[in-house]
Amino acid sequence: MRFIIVTGMSGAGKSQAANCFEDMGYYCIDNMPGELIYTFAELCDISEGQYDKVALVCDVRGGSKFDGLLNSLENMKTDGLEFEVLYLDATDETLISRYKETRRRHPLEHETSSLSEAIAKERQILAPLRDLATDTIDTTGKSSKQTAGEIKALYSMTTEKEGISIVFVSFGFKHGIPRDCDMLFDVRFLPNPFYITELRMHNGTESCVSDYVMSFDVSIEFEKKLCDMMDFLLPQYVSEGRANLVVGIGCTGGNHRSVTFAELLNKYVNEKGYRCQALHRDIDKR
């Protein structure tokens, strides 16, 4: 089990960190009361793998006293429950600038006379947790993408290729374009098996149809160009930090040509080591 406590200064990027952990498949709870962490850790430990990756965000929103959290962590140490602490920080100037940009109130501002005093008080409260930190990330001058990259480098339990999920969706244009496509390819220019009587009631998952579709030079050339495009694009999406990619492939009815190419691309990309699947939205429609 990997059990991460995410804490640090308000405005340093804990919300983005929580999103990043969720994208990596962690079970996340934001603003977890510190005194409940030990009990929750015990539950995770006996869950038989149900909670094998956990990230809990705990900060001054739960109250200015961290005795409950520190006691929880001490109890976890005593019982041999392993945990890590990620502390997010930034300069006072950066935090003030971010609060002015978002126009949100600091959680301790009601206890002080200014934002600067609230930040100073928060640093004092969080000092024991910073000392316990397994890793510290200073987000000063960094974009959300750069911070997410650092978090993934520290806590991802998958390869970069496994970090993105790709879906190849076949469909028929006469039934409408899928709304969630990130990119779309039209294969209606290829010879249509629909006009071959013995193939009409079959689909692109069957060899009789796929062999026919791929028996033409134009189909072979198009497959090569699509695979070359995947080889170029997918590493770019991984580098950008994309978690999901939906590729739509459409023909007239969504039974033959689009299904054939969705299956071919899924097989090719899967052999490259990516997590992917082929879905055939309209395969049962006529």
Give a summary of the structure in a few sentences:
The chain is an alpha/beta fold.
Describe the 3D structure.
With 286 residues, the chain is α/β, with parallel strands linked by helices. It folds into two domains: 154 residues, 3-Layer(aba) Sandwich (Rossmann fold), CATH 3.40.50.300; 120 residues, no CATH class. The chain is built from nine helices and nine strands. Strands 2-3-1-4-5 form a five-stranded parallel beta sheet, with helices on both faces. Strands 7-8-6-9 form a four-stranded parallel beta sheet, covered by helices on one side. Strand 2, helix 2 and strand 3 form a beta-alpha-beta unit. Helix 1 packs across helix 6 and helix 2 runs parallel beside helix 3. The chain is elongated and about 80 Å long.
The number of E-state strands comes to: 9
Largest sheet, in brief, is: 5 strands, parallel
CATH C-level class of the largest domain is Alpha Beta
The largest beta-sheet arranges its strands as 2-3-1-4-5
> CATH superfamily of the largest domain, please?
P-loop containing nucleotide triphosphate hydrolases
Number of folding domains? 2
CATH topology title of the largest domain = Rossmann fold
Order of SSEs, N→C?
EHEHEHEHHEHEEHHEHE
End-to-end CA span: 49 Å
* Relative strand content: 15-25%
Radius of gyration, CA atoms, in whole angstroms? 26 Å
Taking pLDDT < 50 over at least 5 consecutive residues as the criterion, the unreliable ranges are none
**How much is the average pLDDT?**
91
Number of helices: 9
Dominant shape = elongated
What is the percent of helical residues?
40-55%
Task: Using the 3D structure, state the CATH architecture of the largest domain.
Answer: 3-Layer(aba) Sandwich
Structural class: alpha/beta
